[in-house]
Structures are given as structure tokens and as C-alpha cells.
């Protein structure tokens, strides 16, 4: 057995692992949401179990240091194909390649065919993924690689789209068959409106380009149902199975139940945390600012290395002269070059400008969001990989990342299209109607509950609009607290009127809990003397002296059947009948009234006949 040099780590060299066939493959299922079938598996490589080189990150980091990364990729592909053939499973095999490794395959068509047909695996079952670590200096030159792959029978995919080097310009130029959305955008998408909007934009572009989307990183039911209801076809993640040498051949019962869940997702763009501030349409670049040290022009490459080692989370470092940025050094590019044999000895004491980008993307703090959006749409996509420099009146202020830029622009776009109540930030009439339409279109049963506050106007007159607004915000908070965010939709119709579209099974208990919580909590908005008196003295609508009790909550509910019946009518009819139930609830001692399905259908039929929309 070959022994490693004592001066080096105890871990064997990558070439030795390849020669001794000590690499192994694991597979993670990729699931088609329609029917829950496994459409394929992503092949992933592992080093010897229990060693420092077991993980892919350790393997490829070591290969990069040894200058044999492409050889490791080829060996990993061979290992995955061989193991996949032995599994004898149905579906496609997804293989990861860097741009450099794919170019090598394209240069040798015979080798490409040999790999794709290895062990009798049909090339049409292979999907080659371009990994996010790849840097394409000229996407046009890479097109022949795609042509060669498709000529051999394989499909082409962009991996981890939305991060690092996976840009929209790359999507346009390479026209992939499959685009895998990075797990960053999928994790917690059920509660993050920015991620939801970003993925919806990807979905629109996929429909236009004909690419199939795969959502990576799905780990829980809430995220799965949102992605499913958005119309994305396929997914991958721990909810379906972790990478394993003997992967599942069918979807687990729990995952199948999640895919078949009867309730419709409440999309996160329709909600907002109560009390959070609305960002200005002219959001400044300073919101993306990452405070980071800079280096002078005369700094050496050793200085750069020391800074990166000292600050492991720093993605880049700016080079400045008289406080003005003159270059940017990206960590990954620098480390990749510096890891090559003898580069530290040869270049360590030389000026850092040798490995720097002398024309970095620069964003002034005063740049408007419209200008940022133009930057996103430009052909210059360097900021996604390198990041960019942020200046204040031309002087270096800090760094930014492509992720932060996308997030800032997306946030403003969401604000512009929110259609939300300006006081509570809850969805208004347009998103309420839209969600009712989604429920009806999917034949999902639900309860439409109209909420109103009794004696609110006298309170508002007595204490003023400011205190009245506080009561409305309290009501919104109480209602939000009883809703299950992924199932129950809460909207603010206007004034003291709210609408909840319940899909939770225990909806009645939730509604009654809201009434109790509000009725008890609302008393704190009154002066001590009026709390003792049980209300306030005022005038009714005709000007007559009247005593008004405390502000209380009334909820009128309508059952909408999952198919047929009331669901044949539109959002206007459903809201109208729910409002009628609310008027009844205002006179009920409990403050709660439910109109059953038969009566609600009859009422909606009458509402439809009287509606000005009925003839359209």
C-alpha cells in the first residue's frame, strides 16, 4: 500500500482514492408532484466512510488543492453510473459537472458516449447538471458542449439556480431542459414572501422557456404544499428522502399524504407581520451594505490570504486607493488560484492587484431601486459571483452580494403590488378575492368568516382616530394569532371589517377563541372610570343620548362546500353572504353565527341574481 508523505495530512491523495476505487455513490430521489412518482435520482459522491474525506466538500477541496478536480469529477460520474446500473431502478440519473469537466467531455465525443452508455444505462436517462460553482466567462462558447450532450441523448440542467454563477443570462443563452431552484429559495418559502416572489418569477420564465423546474431543499409539508400549489412540477429534499446508497423506490406514505393534502396553501405574499414598517419605494443601497475591511493597492497576495483566513465569512475584499475602490478580489477565485502548486511561493509577495478584478461593479448608496433593477437585467452578471462594492459619494463604504441585491429589488416589487391595508398591512380586497378564487378553482371546502366590531364608532368618536386605530391593530393581531398561516387566510376588508377564510379543521374553536381574546383585551383601551361603568355615554346615529357597552367582536360564518353548491358562485357572492351572517352575529349573545351550507347556497343564488356582475 502506498503511504502518504509524513509531511502531509494523514488523508490519502485523491488520485489514490480513485485508483483504489474507494469512492462510493449515494442517491437522492426527485419526485414528480403529479401522482407522487419518483422520476429520477441525483447521484452524489462520497469518500471513505469515517475519514476526513467522506464529504463531497472535503473531497473536492482536496482535489482542488492537488490540481485534479476534473479527474475527481469524471471518477465520481463513473462511480454514480456504475452504482445506478446495479440498483436497477426506474427513472433518470442526474449527474453533477463543472463547466471545465463538461468541456473535457465535449472535446471527446467518444468518451462522452462511453460515459453515458456505461454499464448499459441509456443516455436518454441521463441529466447532466452544470453546478453552481462553475464560472462561464463566455456562455456562447459553451453552447457546443450542450449540443454534444443532447446529440448523445442526454438532457442538460442548471443546478442551484438563483445563487452564485447560475444567472438568468445563463438560462437565456444555454436554454436548459431542467432548472433546479436552489434550496435557499425553497426553505421556509411558506412564510417568506420574498422567496415566494423570486420563485414565482422563475416559474414564469420557465413557462416561457419550456424548462422543467425542480424545487430543491423541500424539508417540510408547508413548503411542499406552497410549491405544489404554485404549479411547480417536481421537487427534491429530505421530505422525500436523504441521500442513500440504497434509495427509496417509491415515495413514503407521509410524503404522499403531504402531496395529497386537501387544503390549499396560503401564499405568503398575501400576509405581513403586524406592525412592521413598509419600506420606501426608493430603498437605498445602504440596506444591503456589508461592513468589511479593505486593503490598499500595495498590499500583497499574502495579505489577502491572511485576511480571508482571519475572516472566513468574507466573500470578497476591496482594494482601495485614497479611500476610493480600484479593484475587487473574490474569495473563491483567489483561493482557487492560490491553491495551485507553488502559487503561494511564486506569488505570495507580489502585489494583490495581480489576482484582482480591476473593474468591479460599483453601487453608490444613493442608487435608486429602479437603477438596481436595470443592473439585474443587464448582461453584466459579475456581481452574482464576485459581489460588488458600495460607495458613499465615491468613497469606499463596504461590500454587497448578488443575493442581497436580488432581495432588495424583490422587496420593493412586493411592496408596490401588495394591495394591503395601510394600517394593519393585511391583504385587502384584491388578494382576498384572488384567494377565494383559488379555493373555488381547486374545489377546496372552507369557511368564510366575516368579522366586525360592535360599538366601534362610538369608541372612535370618544377616544379619537389614533386610539381607534390601536383597537383595529389589536383586532388584527388577535385574528392573526388564531389563524394557521399555511391554511387560514386573513384579510382586512376595511374599517373594522375583516374576513377569514378558514381551512383548519378546528376553525370554530379558533373563531370563538378570537372573540374571547378580543372582548377581554379591548377593555384596556378604556379609561378606568369607563371600565368600571361597563362602557361609554354617547349619541346614536339620530343624536339621541345612548350608553354603549365595550367594543366586542362579532363573527358570521358561511360554509362553502368542496365541490358544487356554493362554490359555483364567485367571491362577491360568498363575501356578501358572509356579511349577512356577520349582521346576524352582531345581534347574537355569543357574537357567533354559522349559516349552514343549504341556506348559504340559496342566499348566494339570490345574491348572484341581484349582482351587477351576474350578466357579465
TrEMBL record:
The UniProt record lists the EAL domain at 7-257
- Do you know which InterPro entries this protein is assigned to? CBS_dom_sf, Cyclic-di-GMP_PDE-like, EAL_dom, EAL_sf, GGDEF_dom, Nucleotide_cyclase, Rev_trsase/Diguanyl_cyclase
Q: Which residues form the GGDEF domain?
A: 444-597
The source's superkingdom equals Bacteria
Gene3D superfamilies under this entry? Answer: 3.30.70.270, EAL domain
Provide any one GO MF term from the record: cyclic-guanylate-specific phosphodiesterase activity
Protein name in UniProt = Phosphodiesterase
Q: Give the classification, highest ranks.
A: Bacteria, Pseudomonadati, Pseudomonadota, Betaproteobacteria, Burkholderiales
Amino acid at each position: 500500500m502506498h503511504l502518504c508523505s509524513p509531511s502531509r495530512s494523514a488523508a490519502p491523495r485523491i488520485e489514490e482514492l480513485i485508483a483504489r476505487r474507494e469512492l462510493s455513490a449515494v442517491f437522492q430521489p426527485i419526485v414528480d408532484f403529479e401522482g407522487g412518482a419518483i422520476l429520477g435520482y441525483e447521484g452524489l459522491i462520497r469518500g471513505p466512510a469515517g475519514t476526513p474525506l467522506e464529504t463531497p466538500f472535503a473531497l473536492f477541496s482536496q482535489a482542488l488543492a492537488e490540481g485534479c478536480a476534473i479527474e475527481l469529477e469524471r471518477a465520481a460520474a463513473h462511480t454514480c453510473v456504475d452504482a445506478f446500473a446495479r440498483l436497477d431502478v426506474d427513472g433518470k440519473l442526474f449527474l453533477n459537472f463543472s463547466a471545465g469537466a463538461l468541456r473535457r467531455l465535449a472535446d471527446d465525443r467518444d468518451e462522452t458516449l462511453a460515459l453515458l452508455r456505461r454499464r448499459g444505462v441509456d443516455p436518454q436517462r441521463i441529466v447532466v447538471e452544470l453546478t453552481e460553482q462553475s464560472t462561464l466567462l463566455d456562455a456562447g462558447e459553451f453552447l457546443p458542449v450542450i449540443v454534444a450532450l443532447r446529440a448523445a441523448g442526454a438532457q442538460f440542467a442548471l443546478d442551484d439556480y438563483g445563487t452564485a454563477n447560475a444567472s438568468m443570462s445563463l438560462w437565456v443563452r444555454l436554454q436548459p431542459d431542467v432548472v433546479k431552484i436552489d434550496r435557499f429559495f425553497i426553505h421556509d418559502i411558506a412564510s417568506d414572501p420574498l422567496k415566494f416572489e423570486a420563485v414565482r418569477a422563475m416559474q414564469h420564465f420557465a413557462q416561457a422557456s419550456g424548462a422543467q423546474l425542480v424545487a430543491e431543499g423541500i424539508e417540510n409539508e408547508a413548503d411542499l404544499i406552497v410549491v405544489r400549489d404554485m404549479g411547480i412540477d417536481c421537487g427534491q429534499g429530505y421530505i422525500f428522502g436523504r441521500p442513500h446508497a440504497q434509495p427509496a423506490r417509491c415515495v413514503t406514505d407521509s410524503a404522499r399524504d403531504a402531496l395529497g393534502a386537501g387544503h390549499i396553501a396560503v401564499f405568503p405574499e398575501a400576509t405581513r407581520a403586524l406592525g412592521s414598517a413598509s419600506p420606501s419605494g426608493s430603498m437605498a443601497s445602504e440596506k444591503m451594505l456589508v461592513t468589511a475591511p479593505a486593503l490598499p493597492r500595495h498590499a500583497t497576495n499574502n495579505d489577502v490570504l491572511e485576511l480571508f483566513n482571519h475572516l472566513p465569512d468574507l466573500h470578497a475584499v476591496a482594494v482601495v486607493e485614497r479611500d476610493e475602490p480600484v479593484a475587487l478580489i473574490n474569495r473563491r477565485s483567489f483561493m482557487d488560484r492560490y491553491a495551485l502548486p507553488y502559487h503561494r511561493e511564486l506569488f505570495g509577495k507580489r502585489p494583490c492587484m495581480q489576482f484582482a478584478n480591476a473593474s468591479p461593479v460599483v453601487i453608490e448608496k444613493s442608487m435608486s431601486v429602479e437603477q438596481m433593477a436595470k443592473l439585474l437585467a443587464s448582461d453584466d452578471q459579475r456581481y452574482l459571483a464576485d459581489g460588488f462594492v458600495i460607495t458613499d459619494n465615491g468613497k469606499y463604504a463596504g461590500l454587497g452580494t448578488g443575493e442581497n441585491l436580488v432581495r432588495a429589488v424583490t422587496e420593493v416589487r412586493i411592496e408596490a403590488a401588495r394591495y394591503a391595508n395601510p394600517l394593519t398591512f393585511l391583504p385587502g380586497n384584491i388578494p382576498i378575492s384572488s384567494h377565494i378564487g383559488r379555493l373555488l378553482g381547486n374545489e377546496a371546502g372552507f369557511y368564510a368568516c366575516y368579522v366586525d366590531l360592535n360599538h366601534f364608532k362610538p369608541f372612535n368618536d370618544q377616544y379619537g382616530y389614533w386610539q381607534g386605530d390601536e383597537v383595529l391593530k389589536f383586532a388584527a393581531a388577535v385574528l392573526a394569532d388564531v389563524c394557521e398561516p399555511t391554511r387560514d387566510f386573513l384579510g382586512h376588508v376595511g374599517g373594522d371589517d375583516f374576513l377569514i377564510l378558514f381551512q383548519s379543521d378546528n376553525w370554530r374553536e379558533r373563531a370563538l377563541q378570537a372573540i374571547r381574546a378580543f372582548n377581554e383585551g379591548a377593555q384596556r383601551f378604556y379609561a378606568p372610570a369607563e371600565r368600571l361603568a361597563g362602557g361609554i355615554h354617547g349619541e346614536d346615529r339620530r343624536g339621541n343620548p345612548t350608553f354603549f357597552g365595550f367594543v366586542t367582536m362579532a363573527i358570521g360564518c358561511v360554509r362553502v362546500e368542496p365541490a358544487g353548491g356554493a362554490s359555483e358562485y364567485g367571491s362577491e357572492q360568498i363575501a356578501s353572504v358572509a356579511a349577512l351572517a356577520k349582521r346576524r352575529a352582531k345581534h347574537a349573545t355569543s357574537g357567533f353565527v354559522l349559516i349552514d351550507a343549504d341556506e348559504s347556497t340559496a342566499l348566494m343564488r339570490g345574491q348572484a341574481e341581484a349582482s351587477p356582475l351576474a350578466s357579465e
